[in-house]
Amino acid sequence: MLDEIRDWFATHELDGGDFFACPSGYPFTVVPPKPGTETILYSTKTDSIRRLVHDLEGNQTFAAILRGGLPSDDDLYWFRSQVGSRQLLFWGDADPADLLTFAWLRESLPIQYCGLSDNILQQCGVELRDNLTIQLAESEVAALPLVTKCLGDLQSHLGSWCSGLLSSGRKIEVEALFSFAKCTPSELETVLLESGKEV
């Protein structure tokens, strides 16, 4: 499955849909752990997590490894050294590229999904409306069978609304949550970290 996902990214990089395979040594942005930090977020949404850290005034309870694209095989050893015994959570869009990145990481690391889902959106007070969604690129639509093959029932990860969007050729991204959440940054942090424990 690892090779199948990597091959998909490698052959669709120019087709839209955020399918970018990072070369070995491509840099990460890191929010370092503090003493007692128990959770590390891996996220493709660098700007969103940096915004959350800013809004929390640096008092976040998580560390983070941030970078778009599919990691390289060489990154896995480094991930393990950074995570150690901490909980590792994946935060990203409810779209094929991020879901395949999560599936790829899950093959080698004990990582839980806390990306966009019905549950997170509703807990943060975001109404599930079509005008928050974006049409899938053709390459993203074509990737859906591989997403289902790798993750099984998408409803169990995303909920019925977010998974239904994908089936209808649409998606929702993290920016919608940050734009329309009706909760404090601290409450948003709690929702993210708790959602990873539920999966």
Can you give a write-up of this model?
With 199 residues, this protein is α/β, with parallel strands linked by helices. The chain has one domain: Dna Topoisomerase Vi A Subunit, Chain: A, domain 2 (3-Layer(aba) Sandwich), CATH 3.40.1360. 48% of the residues lie in helices and 13% in strands. The protein contains 9 helices and 7 strands. It has helices at residues 2-11, 46-55, 75-83, 96-106, 118-123, 138-151, 154-167, 174-180, 185-198; strands at 29-31, 39-43, 62-66, 87-91, 111-113, 134-135, 170-171. The protein has a 5-stranded mixed sheet with strand order 1-3-2-4-5, with helices on both faces. Strands 6-7 form a two-stranded antiparallel sheet. Helix 2 (46-55) links the parallel strand 2 and strand 3. The chain starts with a helix and ends with a helix.
Provide a quick synopsis of the model.
The protein has 199 residues and is α/β, with parallel strands linked by helices. The protein contains nine helices and seven strands; from the N terminus they run αββαβαβαβαβααβαα. The protein has one domain (1-196): Dna Topoisomerase Vi A Subunit, Chain: A, domain 2, CATH 3.40.1360.
What value does the average pLDDT take? 91
CATH class membership: Alpha Beta
Give the N-to-C terminal Cα separation.
21 Å
- Listing every helix as H and every strand as E from the N terminus to the C terminus, the arrangement reads HEEHEHEHEHEHHEHH
Helical/strand content category: alpha/beta
Question: Shape from CA axes?
Answer: globular
Number of E-state strands = 7
**DSSP helix fraction:** 40-55%
Tell me about the largest β-sheet.
5 strands, mixed
Q: DSSP strand (E) fraction?
A: 5-15%
Tell me the domain tally.
1
User: In what order do the strands lie side by side in the largest sheet?
Assistant: 1-3-2-4-5
